From TrEMBL:
Gene3D superfamilies: Anti-sigma factor, zinc-finger domain. It comes from Corallococcus llansteffanensis. This is Zf-HC2 domain-containing protein. It comes from the Bacteria. InterPro entries: Anti_sigma_zinc_sf, Znf_put. Pfam families: zf-HC2. Residues 15-40 form the Putative zinc-finger domain. Coiled coil: none annotated.
Length: 91
């Protein structure tokens, strides 16, 4: 006689979606969701959430894609300060 399959938890569902469950545990989970509506709904919600997170992550620009302002103003500002100091010394 087989033991009853426990209901899914969010952690176990996440492991399944990430492919971290052993094959026999994944098959057991799949069989359980075919007969348990609440667990099937939880699996569907978590799968949708994972898909949405991937979409958001894909839309965020990577570090290399971020446009940064040119740094030309730093040397120009340093030169202006140096000229002001030099002018104050000579005057």
């Amino acid at each position: 006689m087989s033991r009853p399959t426990p209901h899914l938890t969010r952690d176990r569902t996440e492991q399944y979606l990430l492919g971290a469950l052993p094959p026999d545990a994944a098959a057991e989970l799949e069989a359980h969701t075919l007969t348990c509506e609440p667990c099937a709904r939880l699996l569907q919600e978590e799968a949708l959430l994972e898909e949405q997170l991937y979409e958001v992550a894909a839309s965020v620009p990577r570090e290399a894609e971020v446009i940064r302002p040119a740094r030309w103003h730093r040397p120009v500002a340093a030169a202006a300060v140096a000229m002001a100091v030099a002018a104050s010394v000579f005057l």
